[in-house]
Write a structure and sequence with these properties.
Shape: elongated
Helix content: 25-40%
Order of helices and strands: EHEHHEHHEHEHEEHE
Oligomer: single chain
Largest sheet: 4 strands, parallel
Length: about 240
């Protein structure tokens, strides 16, 4: 609040509620007009459920890549403070969190864990009325191991249409792969993997071809898919 004097809203990841309680209470004393929004994940919505149902609730289980905010039950004090000072709480999915982690890596050169990226995911996927607003998103941690980060990046690429795969049913004859590769290349796609398998197709000479590609976005994937169909290939 001292560094930036024209904030409209702050988004904060919520687990047990300690971080957002302190932020919301303080911000509302200094400048009550600033909105404070909490963000939880769909696999651990303990504070979200408690606020919406006006009573503290305990989840039977939690499951999310945002393990830093995977809390089954909010505390009494934090529940009361969130209820009094936080303007709204929304949920983001693990896929949305993965996309936010990828965006932070690419745009900000910042490694964030799932819990840290949740607040950014809420802004990216329009969970609150923030269009045209000046927003601060609290990125609360970068404690993510390399294996998990690799999986999250792969998930983020898939979710944004930057990585995709097609399963194509073919007649097993020479030249098929060449034609498919040509169509994908002409559309600007890049083939990164090819897997051939014989299977239970309509034709005795049939086979399946799985093509993995690097693409720009979902519209690019649709262009490639339609171009293949236009040349007679059966996309499954």
């Amino acid at each position: 609040m001292n560094d930036i004097d024209n904030i409209d809203a702050i988004t904060v990841p919520v687990g047990g509620g300690g971080l957002i309680s302190g932020i919301a209470y303080t911000v509302k004393q200094i400048r009550p007009s600033v909105k404070v929004y909490g963000v939880q994940v769909t696999g651990a919505p303990s504070m979200y459920n408690s606020i919406k149902n006006n009573k503290i609730e305990c989840l039977k289980s939690v499951h999310t890549i945002a393990d830093g905010i995977a809390v089954k039950q909010p505390g009494e004090n934090t529940y009361a403070l969130v209820n009094d000072y936080v303007d709204d709480i929304a949920l983001v999915s693990d896929d949305e969190v993965a996309s936010a982690i990828l965006a932070l890596i690419e745009k900000q050169k910042m490694i964030a864990e799932g819990a840290g990226a949740a607040a950014v995911a809420a802004v990216m996927f329009d969970k609150f009325p923030l269009k045209g607003k000046r927003v601060v998103s609290v990125v609360s941690g970068g404690n993510i191991d390399v294996t998990s980060l690799s999986r999250v990046i792969d998930r983020g690429l898939l979710n944004t249409g930057r990585s995709s795969s097609l399963l194509i049913e073919l007649i097993d004859k020479p030249g098929q792969l060449k034609d498919i590769s040509r169509i994908i290349a002409d559309c600007g796609g890049n083939v990164t993997g090819v897997h051939y398998e014989k299977g239970n197709t309509e034709s005795v000479n049939g086979c399946f071809l799985r093509i993995e590609m690097e693409t720009r976005d979902y519209e690019h994937v649709r262009l490639i898919t339609q171009s293949l169909r236009d040349e007679g290939f059966k996309i499954l």
